[in-house]
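Z., the sequence and structure:
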Amino acid sequence: MEKIKYILVFFCSIALAGCFEKTTLDRLIDNPTASDIKLIIDGKELTIPAKSEVNYSFEYGKHTMTYNNDSINFIIKPAKFGGTTIINPTQSNYILHTNVYVTSAMKESESDKVIEKQINNIPIIINGEVTEIPLTAKLINDVFIDQQDYDWDYGLDQDLPEEITREMSKNYAYSETLTKLYRESEYIKLLKQDDIEEEISFPYQPKKFSEISSTHFFPTVDLDAIKCEPGREYIKSLYDQWQHLFTLKGGDFVSKYNKLMDDSDFDKQKQLENICNNQIDPNRTYNIAITNYNYNILRDSRDFNFFLIKQ
């Protein structure tokens, strides 16, 4: 009896783990500006004071964020690996700075080459005039700043180390880079540590949400371009399932999402490739569409916690 009881408890634990699968995602909404901002998220007003941040809990599913009478639709979803996403509704500037660390054994000419690889010409305003300067940095003003895109080692409230320790021979020439994400005001303070007296800022270039270009928009498909009817109907059924997914929230969303990601019917796809052959579909329109689906949705989206939805 004891053994049976133990097994039942074990399987009960597995069942409970499945029942309590995460259905929400906390994300930082940052306001680095000097003024309070008001957002509307799914009809609820949210005020974020100047130079502060809010950790906001999103239920998995579709959401709408409105700022300055401009709205953007997005999907919050599970991710295979994921990372931090900073929501930047004001499209303020952030700087991804690269620190280059070298051992004393490395020649100056070699360390210069390492640094040169990290340099970009960054637009900057100095005493009111726009120019460019070389920095080991990138300028970012995305609405959704995702760690999977920019791969920073240190976030907004973390400090880069002045030096790092690695186990190696004293005479070994070695270099390593570490990156940190800065708010614009914090990065300007960093630049001014070199006794720069000029007034410095970076160009502020926000766009309407409808004008944003991003690799994270949920892909659309031109069904009329698919000339093989069985293939067209199959592609339509796949996209229809995703559109239905976008009507769900929380646990219902998670269950449907996991099913869509796991139920790739490659046998069916192969069968349709044979049906939509060169005679029926000489331009391979079905093949192109199903390849785009498998890569742009099933593969490329696994690591990200969000999709943007075109208005």
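Residues 2-87 form a domain with the Immunoglobulin-like fold (CATH 2.60.40). The first strand starts at residue 24 and ends at 31.

Let me know what you think.
H.
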